[in-house]
Amino acid sequence: MAQDFKILDQYKDNPVLYETQEALLKAKYNHATKKWHIDFTKVADAIEKNPKLIDSQDMNGNTILHVLAKLLDKNCYGLSFNDLFKMGANPFVTNKEGLTPRGLVSMRSFPDVHGQLSAYESSYQAMQLGKALVALKDICSYQTYQKTPRGNSIEPDINCLQPSTVQKAKK
After folding, report:
1. Hey, which residues does 77 pair with through a beta bridge?
2. CA dihedral sign, ordered 128, 133, 139, 141
3. How far apart are the C-alpha atoms of 88 and 48, rounded to whole Å?
4. What is the pLDDT of residues 29-85, one digit of tens each?
5. Cα–Cα distance, 122 to 153 (Å, whole number)
6. Quick one: how far is CA 140 from the chain centroid?
7. How far is CA 5 from the centre of its chain?
8. How far is it, in rounded angstroms, from Cα 55 to Cα 89?
């Protein structure tokens, strides 16, 4: 029991990791269903309060996505892969073993979850690419559509996306 408090104490500054560890410590075994029951409701609440912590890693490098991937044969409730996807969890974070959540799932026989994680990885990459393109567009817009002293717009610079131009715009 004292060791449990040491585990929780090391995560006291990160509510997502703290609530994840506490949920794991409070897991209950149901003899009727022969499954562990783990409530991640408080973890979901902690993520909603501070979304930037969603990809926090514990001492083994595991995020909450890794934890759920390891517990696929358990009865986890209060938080699902879909919930984490909607909250923007990064599926490409690797733990200290070099595994992503999908890597953990692929080591076990859960093909439907493997497919779900694979599809999410693709949509996550597309979302990140979209953000990068918007940022580039903003840089180019700022640089090429500045007003002249008479108030006329300068014509767009077709070389805006050249690497040297983007680097100058960042400075």
Report:
1. 39
2. negative
3. 11
4. 778 877 778 888 888 898 999 888 899 999 899 998 898 888 876 777 788 888 888
5. 39
6. 29
7. 27
8. 6
Tokens of 54: 């969603």
Say if residues 76 and 38 touch (Cβ distance below 8 Å).
yes
Assigned token pair, 117:
């994680």
Model confidence, pTM = 0.62
For strand 35-39 and strand 75-77, is the pairing parallel, antiparallel, or unpaired?
parallel
User: Position of tokens 């949509």?
Assistant: 123
Specify the residue for token string 């969890």: 89
Q: Could you tell me the CA-to-CA distances from 82 to 26, 40, 67, 112, 134 in Å, in that order?
A: 23, 14, 14, 13, 26
Give Cβ neighbours of residue 163 (< 8 Å, ≥ 6 apart).
Answer: none
How many Cα atoms are found within 13 Å in the side-chain-facing hemisphere of 147? Answer: 4
In angstroms, how far is CA 126 from the centroid of its own chain?
14
Tokens of 40: 């991640």
